[in-house]
Request: fold
Amino acid sequence: MQTSPIGIFDSGYGGLTVFRSIADQLPGYNYIYLGDNARSPYGDHSFETIYKYTLECVEWLFAKGCELVILACNTASAKALRTIQQHDLPAKYPDRRVLGVIRPTAEVIGGFTRSKQVGVMGTRGTINSKSYLIEINKFFPDIAVHQQSCPMWVPLIENNEHLQPGADFFIDEYCNQLMMKSGDIDCVLLACTHYPLLLPKLKNVFPDSINILTQGEIVANSLVNYLKRHPELEQKLGKNGEKSFYTSGDALAFDEHASIFFGEELRSEKMG
Ligand code: DGL
Reply:
């Protein structure tokens, strides 16, 4: 039966920036978005906690009928994806699939830099995991990756304070720290799905010569290819163009805030 929705998960709102691009490129499918807002941000939590929270949310999406779940969260992709793919899926859900956002980004990043000096900005969890260093090095061993963790950015964005003047200090601070690592960086990857909301400010901080890269389109392109390569899974997916949104937090608060990430108004339900 072709009824299975594609599950899209993030610790909070950030995954909506990826969902937006996926829904643009693949509008015909059915989707369920889940934001774990009650426990967000994930960025500073331990591996064990992020794995536990992520697995709980993935299993909740499986129970809703999702055969395929996208972790639209770098922190969860960095800390939980491998264990879920290598341990939980084979043991408990051999026919289901969970994909992340790090590998698809690492696969294409070489096309966005000439100097081969790339900056990666993310949460502490993503940066400390060194996932981007490892993955980019697999595909492009000649690229030097300069990492910068930005622990204040997700809390500022989740509280909708990121475009206020008070946020400028933390925005300038992390960008300056990154630029001090190499004067030759010509591509800065926003390796957190919340960060595209900072683009208006980041464009003023970084010189025009720097390509500021967001992940939505990259992940959406990768999903298009994945579905072509996996017709057995694609055939199970529902295609009525339905979108549902769930949050572990307060649904009204989610609806008020979510549109700045998703680009349109939406109505969510509290995760049951
Ligand atoms: N959007 C998540 C990411 O891509 C934010 C993680 C957090 O909750 O700190 O990493």
Summary: The first helix runs from residue 15 to 25.
